[in-house]
Write a structure and sequence with these properties.
- By secondary structure, this protein is of the alpha+beta class.
- Helices cover 36% and strands 26% of the residues.
- The chain has helices at 31-74, 78-82, 84-93, and strands at 18-21, 24-27, 102-110, 116-117, 129-141, 152-162.
- The chain has a four-stranded antiparallel β-sheet with strand order 4-3-5-6.
- Strand 3 (102-110) and strand 4 form a beta hairpin.
- The protein is rod-shaped, with a radius of gyration of 32 Å.
- The termini are far apart.
């Protein structure tokens, strides 16, 4: 028996992390460091991609919520349905902390037969239905430039509701 098993030396004469190849002893102690050095750039790119994906998802959700907030303001009454500036303000106020968000609000009417027209235009429709629509948009910019992917992406969301 070569060595003392109680002290960590195996009976075959190899220490921890050593390999015997072709009659020679080689150490594996640096192998983990080389593997880590080789994989670190890949892991960093994956983490940055995940961070950008999270940011674009957050902005998309914020735009959806802002559009919904704008139409919720507009459907309260006939007066708020005609207040496009108020709907736009409600939408942009919902995105506090996010810059570059724009909101466009509109009101339109529809007959039960499906014809759409401006509410300010007289029409022979007997059961006029008033709808409000808010479209929100923003431009998303990635943290870094990725090969094959655009650096900026335009995001848009819209919400439509019938006035009560």
């Amino acid at each position: 028996m070569i060595g003392n098993p109680a002290r960590g030396v195996r009976a075959h004469g190899l220490g921890p992390g050593q390999v015997r190849r072709g009659g020679r002893f080689f150490s594996r102690r640096g192998q983990s460091m080389v593997e880590l050095a080789a994989l670190t750039p890949v892991l960093v790119v994956i983490l940055l991609g995940a961070a950008d994906l999270s940011r674009v998802y957050y902005l998309s959700t914020a735009l959806n919520n802002a559009a919904r907030a704008g139409v919720q303001y507009g459907v309260q009454s006939a007066a708020t349905a005609a207040d496009t500036n108020g709907m736009q303000t409600a939408a942009t106020n919902d995105t506090t902390g996010i810059s570059g968000v724009t909101a466009t609000a509109s009101e339109y009417c529809q007959c039960p037969t499906g014809g759409t027209f401006l509410c300010s235009v007289p029409n022979s429709c007997t059961d006029k239905r008033v709808y409000v629509k808010v479209v929100t948009s923003a431009t998303f910019t990635t943290l870094f430039t990725y090969p094959g992917l655009p650096h900026t992406v335009s995001l848009t969301s819209q919400a439509v509701m019938r006035e009560q």
